[in-house]
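Title: Comparing notes on inverse folding

I've been comparing how different people in this forum approach sequence design from structure. To keep things fair, I'm posting one structure and asking everyone to reply with a full sequence. Here's the target:
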């Protein structure tokens, strides 16, 4: 079922001022989901993510490419310690849920695997990205995200690699683009 999004309240941030907005009073511990920030003026956003013994900072952007079919970047090399997941978001003002199909493609564009799931209005889903299929040598080369009900969505691939010794990590957020 689709629970409605809830507001954590309003914050006034004066021009040139930095503010930290704690979410622990609004979001239960261990919650998984998305964050939507609305502003009436230009705003730079950075979100810290904790988990899997690491801390990653992701910069927010309003440059999402909304569409009903999106394609994404090649998979990272798992042998070098990279992991990835695909994050799909519905617009905060979407009128209805949408059925999604995530397809993982090999380098020739053939489907290795696919999954379908319902995305709630204003919701976010995270899909771990498999690096290979059952046959040796067939690596995922790219992925596609399709909204089967015509509701535009935005999607990104989150890449992360733990440091060689300790809690340091590298990460990147790569937006998917319209096909």
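Reply #1:
Here's my take.
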């Amino acid at each position: 079922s689709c629970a409605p999004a809830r507001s954590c309240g309003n914050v006034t941030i004066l021009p040139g001022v930095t503010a930290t907005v704690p979410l622990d009073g609004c979001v239960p511990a261990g919650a998984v989901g998305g964050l939507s920030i609305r502003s009436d003026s230009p705003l730079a956003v950075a979100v810290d993510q904790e988990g899997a013994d690491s801390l990653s900072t992701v910069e927010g952007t309003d440059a999402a490419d909304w569409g009903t079919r999106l394609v994404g970047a090649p998979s990272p090399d798992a042998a070098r310690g990279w992991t990835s997941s695909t994050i799909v978001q519905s617009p905060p003002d979407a009128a209805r849920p949408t059925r999604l199909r995530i397809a993982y493609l090999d380098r020739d564009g053939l489907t290795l695997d696919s999954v379908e799931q319902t995305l709630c209005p204003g919701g976010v889903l995270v899909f771990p990205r498999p690096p290979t299929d059952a046959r040796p040598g067939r690596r995922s080369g790219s992925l596609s995200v399709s909204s089967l009900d015509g509701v535009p969505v935005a999607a990104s691939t989150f890449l992360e690699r733990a440091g060689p010794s300790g809690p340091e990590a590298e990460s990147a957020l790569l937006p998917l683009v319209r096909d």
